[in-house]
Amino acid sequence: MKNKHVSERKIFRLKKEVDHCRHQWKVVSEHRRRAWQLTDEYWEENTKIKLENEELWEKLIKANKELRELEKKLAK
User: Fold this and answer.
1) Could you report the per-residue pLDDT of 6-63, keeping only the tens digit for each?
2) What is the DSSP letter of 76?
3) Superkingdom of this entry's organism (predicted)?
4) Residue 8 and residue 28: Cα distance in Å, rounded?
């Protein structure tokens, strides 16, 4: 009878441990999923900002070129 009681306690303890591990796994999985989501959002935002930056740079170059041409015309 004593061995049965010990094994029941051991089974109960192991079941609790398994439940705890499953819970921890779910928590870790959720953190990993959220990290990937944030990474994806970061890359999307970063790409968008890069494109805007390139457009602004091109506009700046074009405006600079026009300014130099106007300055040349005025200097004549």
Assistant:
1) 788 889 999 999 999 999 999 999 999 999 999 999 999 999 999 999 999 999 999 9
2) -
3) Eukaryota
4) 30
DSSP string, 5-52: HHHHHHHHHHHHHHHHHHHHHHHHHHHHHHHHHHHHHHHHHHHHHHHH
Buried b (16+ CB within 10 A) or exposed e, 46-68: eeeeeeeeeeeeeeeeeeeeeee
Question: In the block, which residue shows the tokens 């968008």?
Answer: 48
Report which of 7, 25, 4 is spatially closest to residue 15, judged by C-alpha positions.
7
Task: Report the first-to-last Cα separation within the chain, whole angstroms.
Answer: 112
